[in-house]
Amino acid sequence: MSESIPFIDEYGFCNQWSQKLIDEYVSERATREQKQSDVWTNYIKSAGGIEKIYVKSSKFKKLIRAGIPQGLRPMIWGQILGLEEKISKSNDIYHRSYKMVEVVPKNYRDIIENDLKRTFNDAENLSKDILRKILIAFAVTHPEIGYCQSLNFIAALLLVVLGDEPAYHALCTIVEDFLPADYYTAGMHGFRVDLQLFNSILHERTPEVWKHATKLHHEWMLTASGWLLTVFSNSFPIPTVLRIWDSFLVEGPKIIYRVAVGFLRIHQEEFLKAQKLSQFTNLLSNCEKNMIDQDQLMEMAFGLRAFSRNHLIEQRVVAERIVDTGVGEQQTTLLHEMFGKFNM
Fold this sequence. Notes:
Blueprint: E1 4-8, E2 14-18, H1 19-47, H2 58-65, H3 73-81, H4 83-88, H5 93-98, H6 106-116, H7 128-141, H8 151-162, H9 164-178, H10 189-205, H11 207-215, H12 220-230, H13 238-251, H14 254-266, H15 268-271, H16 277-289, H17 294-302, H18 309-339
Antiparallel strand pairs: 1-2
Helix pairs in contact: 6-7, 7-8, 7-9, 8-9, 10-11, 10-12, 10-18, 13-14, 14-17
């Protein structure tokens, strides 16, 4: 096995990769970035400016699936999420909310402080002070949630891309509009339903890996929690995560399931060779941190058939019925152990 060495990516995150992987990444990035920049520059020019882009058009969706170049991502994400308008109409709620820190229960403030210590500690461009401000402001304006572990990673990702005030409004938008209701609230009902949905999708779409890992006593809930609650932000290399998020912001949560299935299919042959649980979990972790081939991952994800929004809605109804009729208590117990009593 090749020795891993530190490599700082273009977003300031440190990755432990082999020299071969670093060389591949640098070469692929240069080619991809130039191609994306040329295509997006022409598209924006033809639209008459970023502010005139119609984000619901099929052409825009096609471009998004191919990825946004680094230099344009803050502006494109801002346009997708309508951040300029939200900030202008917010009456400075972000800055005002942080000054109301005392209304946030102490237990939430303590969890936030603990999580700040383990949030992307190797990221050069991440300000923990500003991240704290975003999380406190969110807790003030969303008392029904307060704080839930994993929001730190989502907020950090948004902060690195967008800056502080836009990141706060983006976090609010994602929690309120993108993910199912009750995802981060007490009991995490929406998340527990998605755990069941995730399990069903893997069983249906990657049956060999699912059966093999289950036979080894792998707890899929642990894997799903990391992928679902943070939308992969603490799983894959950040450049790959941002490529996933480009599509997530346009197409919604179904992208999470597409990527999960695509990732497992890419590495299926390797996963099936694992003879012990420890081998499988180590292999899964290594494959995650070395997932630098964005094109391969997204092509596999978008190559999946019969993965429509309506199909997922139907499957989620079934998953919710299962959770509400018995599985819920077992999941709640496990989630208590994973996230602690203050998140439930």
